Amino acid sequence: MTHGIVTGFDGSARSEAAVGWAAAEATLRGVPLRIVHAWPWLGSARSDGPAAAPHQGALRELDEVTERLRGVHPGLDVVTEAVADDPVDALLARAAEHRLVVLGSRGLGGFAGLLVGSVGLAVAARSTTPVVLVRDGAPAVPADGADRPEVVAGVAGGSSAAVLEFAFAEAERRGGRVRAVHGWEAVPFWTAAGWVPPQEDVELRGAEIRDGLLKVLAPLRAAHPGVEAVVETRTGGAAPALVAASARADLVVVGRREHRLGTRLGAVAHAAVHHCTAPVAVVPHD
């Protein structure tokens, strides 16, 4: 595995946003950036055959985006690659050799639509490397002097360690804070106003969850003394809590179990990548 970042590019606005975010992240980390332009194989090996046109177009687009990136990040080491292969297969093959994958998405935000690109979802659901999904219009890494960045970490069960380690490292690079978010469902009871949870029970359960999160955060705070960490608990479920917190976040981090049956994201990660307004990092864990 290298220490670099790999990103996919197809000439679209959302992939341009992803490449821009990846370049800013690579600059923060001081690592190279690989930009991959992949398209399905058309079955001709001739240099003037059907496969030649997309290859030549891809090379031209890669040259153009590289020139733009070097204007913004003059010291960035950029490597480009045009390959006739299924985009998901091409990106997954290269993901194993890199520390991070960055891809574009088409999410609408809120709960209105389900438009994350199929390539991004497929790679995020199968990659053994963390994947960041960036939508068109998402901010890149804040510049010096900007408001303090915030990394939101979705904390739940067995995914907490991997998610928090990733979140603290990202916050440390940005000089920002970590907001550990846990959403939970209150058990309701019947009143004249309908089914509502007892307020005392909600407050007690919320305090218990908060205390548990503070204990989980303690070793990470010690390992990253320059990173401020805050805890937020919300009733109403994990996904709505993350979506709400994403409105003020520079990055949202969620977990994905590596050995989950099938090739789909879990419910919370799926909701986050579709509805969060900030870029979302999907971190695989055991």
UniProtKB/TrEMBL annotation:
SUPFAM superfamilies: Adenine nucleotide alpha hydrolases-like
Residue ranges of every copy of the UspA domain listed in the record: 2-135, 154-284
InterPro entries reported for this sequence: Rossmann-like_a/b/a_fold (IPR014729), Universal_stress_UspA (IPR006015), UspA (IPR006016)
Record family assignment: Belongs to the universal stress protein A family.
Name by which UniProt lists this protein: Stress-inducible protein
Record organism: Kitasatospora phosalacinea
